[in-house]
Amino acid sequence: MSRALIAILRGVEPTEVVGIGEALLASGIDRMEVPLNSPDPLRSIALLVDAFGGRALIGAGTVLDVDQANAVADVGGRLIVSPDCNPAVIAASKARGMASFPGVQTATECFTALRHGADGLKFFPASQAGGPAMLKALGGPFVDAVFCPTGGVTARSPSVCQGINPRGVAAPALIALAVWRAGGRGTAGVNPMHAR
Fold this sequence. Notes:
Blueprint: E1 5-9, H1 14-26, E2 31-35, H2 41-52, E3 57-61, H3 66-74, E4 79-81, H4 87-95, E5 99-101, E6 103-104, H5 107-115, E7 121-123, H6 131-137, E8 147-149, H7 158-161, E9 175-180
Parallel strand pairs: 1-2, 1-9, 2-3, 3-4, 4-5, 6-7, 7-8
Helix pairs in contact: 1-2, 3-4
């Protein structure tokens, strides 16, 4: 079972990641990003890849430039998630065989990302950028795009999660959910063992 989630392991320490990864995989969550502003993120990514690389898509979030994307590839990461739409980061990610999810809010950014080879679109920050209503508005020209609403999406904010498909039908969609933060507590009451 693979759930349509990308787990954001924000602020994790390398000593925590394998246990968190095990809990996520046991819950059917097989996409994990460690934001690069976490403590020793490349070490955490390498540990996750060593433990679960054959069963999970693992990589980094908050990837801002080509050097960072290449560093993630060098430790075995296969997923790049960025808060912005940077064509150079998308190109570098694709050149290294990684999935690319650049951050977007507007139709122009969506077109730019997709034209440069993005695999999906990180709609960020989702709740502040219009949530389901904005995604529905983007539905016309982006019928086949994979949107990944991020920011303000929690187990307690179902309205942000509802309608994540811009057309309101069953098409590809992922939700990025921060299921872990420093200190070993799930965020916003979300336990990685029960994330849905």
